[in-house]
Amino acid sequence: MATDEEERRRCHERLRDALPAVECGTCAGVRVPRPAEPRKPFDRLFDRGTPEHSSFEGGLVSVHREHTRPGEDVTVVGGGFGITTVAAAAAGARVTVYEASAARLAALRETLRLNGVDPDRVTPRRAVVGTLADAEAEAKGQPLLSSPTVPPADLLPCDVLELDCEGAERTVLRGLADEMTDSAMPRLVAAEVHPIKLGGEPDAVLALLAGLGYEPTAWLTHDGAPVSRDQFERLLDGETPDVTGPDHQEFPPVVVAER
User: Fold this and answer.
1) The Cα angle at residue 109 between residues 105 and 113, in degrees rounded to 5
2) Same structural domain, 39 and 65
3) Which CATH number covers residue 173?
4) Residue-range definition of the domain harbouring residue 110
5) Of the candidates 181, 172, 115, 124, which has an alpha carbon nearest to the alpha carbon of residue 147?
């Protein structure tokens, strides 16, 4: 027979999802409902942990905080939980964000709400840009296969292009090359580079950027620590340069390139 304490715990578990958050976790300083679990009423009473505060997505977030300008148009390919979208909107940009997963898009909208982002500044679109990367399909599941597909040319024009598409960056950049006109191309591209998900061809992203007339201006770890080009290339080779402490998030690194 359950004790009173056990029954209270069970009742809390049943009701917890419906309770409002009293403290949210953060990723790179952005309040998020996921992946950092929020704290709900009575959590401390039942010894549940406090919300996580991590540097997840800090590299791309730092790009918007340091380089995106008020009034610019930003396109995000791979919106995820909306962390970088919040940073771009906070910089004063208008943001169009593509995300193939309906669940992630719902989380993105909640992240915007938690951070007080004006919904008129953000246009979320459920779509795959170009082709769906194998790694993304495996991570997010079969429902992605029903997502609409848009050609990379639909991303233009924009001032800042963010690519966080789990290995499909090559497809997007090749599509832009096919439609390239100088007047429409972004002034800045920030791309995560996935050494494993790119199947041993991580340098292809850098080569495609160079072919489009972009010059790298910054190299960052996933959480935003600046590294040299040599350290970046070592990351792509699977090495881990000694940049900061043990909680450092190196992968996937970010390249920032401008025309």
Assistant:
1) 165
2) no
3) 3.40.50.150
4) 55-258
5) 124
Ordered alpha helix ranges (H), the chain: 4-16, 58-67, 83-90, 102-114, 134-140, 169-178, 203-211, 229-236
Nearest CA to 222 out of 117, 84, 91 is that of 84
Statement to judge: residues 84 and 133 lie in one domain = yes
* 171 in the same domain as 44: no
**69 and 173 assigned to the same domain:** yes
170 with 135, same domain: the answer is: yes
Least confident range from 152-156, 193-197, 220-224: namely: 193-197
Angle at the Cα of 143 from the Cα atoms of 165 and 57, rounded to 5 degrees: 30
190 lies in the same domain as 95: yes
Task: Please state the pTM of the whole predicted model.
Answer: 0.86
Is the pLDDT assigned to residue 168 strictly greater than 70? yes
DSSP 111-134: HHHHTT--GGGEEEEE-EESS--H
**132 shares its domain with 231:** yes
At 147 the pLDDT is 77
By DSSP bridging, strand 73-77 and strand 149-150 are unpaired
* Domains held by the chain: number: 2
Count CB atoms within 10 A of the CB of residue 87: 27
Q: pLDDT at position 146, please?
A: 67
Model confidence pLDDT, tens digit, residues 215-243: 999 999 889 989 888 888 888 777 766 66
Give pLDDT tens digits for 78-124.
999 999 999 999 999 999 999 998 989 999 999 999 999 999 999 99
